Amino acid sequence: MVRHAQQYVNSPRRKAVILDPYGQFIKEITAHCDISDKTILEVGCGHGRITRDLARHARRVVAIDPDEGALQKARTQINAENVVFLRCRGELLPFPEGWFDMVVYSLSLHHLAQDAMRVSFNEAAGLLGEHGLIVVIEPGEDGTLIKAEERFGVGDGNETGEKDAARRAIADLSGWRIGKTVCFQTCFHFVDQQDFLESLLPDYKSKSPSLIRAIGDYLADCTEHGRIVMHADRRMDILLRA
């Protein structure tokens, strides 16, 4: 099942955290891919943070996610006429052959089971026209947010194994090659430690005081101009037909 990194930045109590405040995702996508007037399938749209930006450029965006709650939130936030949100698993893509110009995996591929990654890729390839692209955006290895996930188990926790499996699936995709790899960094802004905990560790009240203190010490080094600013590396692979 696809999960999505956007899920943990929408606390039911407070919505102060800001994901990608400078729009780095769409800047990198549009800098390296022509998405103007294109029909795009986004796999793992979550709450629609990237969907919204894609829709400003594309002719049509079909955004899928298996989480109906996330989709409902996305629908309330995005009412663009060229966007359709559908509940669908990432390895089950019920669309006509050749219908899309691009398939975008937005921080979602590594959340699929290893076998499902290959199935999803094969199905995605069949949905694309002759000159179609597969764009895979995955978490990188560095950044203060990623290190916090690995060290404290916040957010999605340590995803090293899942990220490695995703890279193997990309490299093993038959009939396709990596045309370009782009590494970039995105930001997360939190109002304070409470905002961070509510957003990335919802059950923090059940955690040990020593863990919360350690998180607080870590966040103290991430404070800029009275707010917590964290970074996460991202890797974008653009796949072309071989």
Number of strands: 9
Q: Calculate the terminal CA-CA distance, rounded to whole Å.
A: 28 Å
- Characterize the biggest β-sheet: 9 strands, mixed
Average pLDDT, all residues: 92
Q: In terms of per-residue confidence, which ranges show pLDDT below 50 for 5 or more consecutive residues?
A: 1-14
Give the CA-based shape. globular
Rg calc: 18 Å
Determine the fraction of residues in helical runs and give it as a percent range.
Answer: 25-40%
Total domain modules = 1
Helix/sheet category: alpha/beta
Would you list the SSEs in sequence order as H and E? EHEHEHEEHEHHEHHEE
Task: Give the helix tally.
Answer: 8
Strand content: 25-35%
Give the C-level CATH assignment. Answer: Alpha Beta
Short description:
The chain is an alpha/beta fold and 242 residues long.
Which labels suit this protein?
single chain; 242 residues; Rossmann fold; 29% strand; globular
What does this 3D model show about the protein?
With 242 residues, the chain is α/β, with parallel strands linked by helices. The chain has a single domain (5-241), classed as Vaccinia Virus protein VP39 (Rossmann fold, 3-Layer(aba) Sandwich), CATH 3.40.50.150. Helix content is 33%, strand content 29%. It is built from 8 helices and 9 strands. It has helices spanning 24-32, 49-55, 68-77, 114-127, 144-152, 160-171, 193-200, 209-220, and strands at 18-19, 39-43, 60-65, 83-87, 100-106, 128-139, 176-190, 223-224, 227-241. Strands 1, 2, 3, 4, 5, 6, 7, 8 and 9 form a 9-stranded mixed sheet that branches. It is globular.
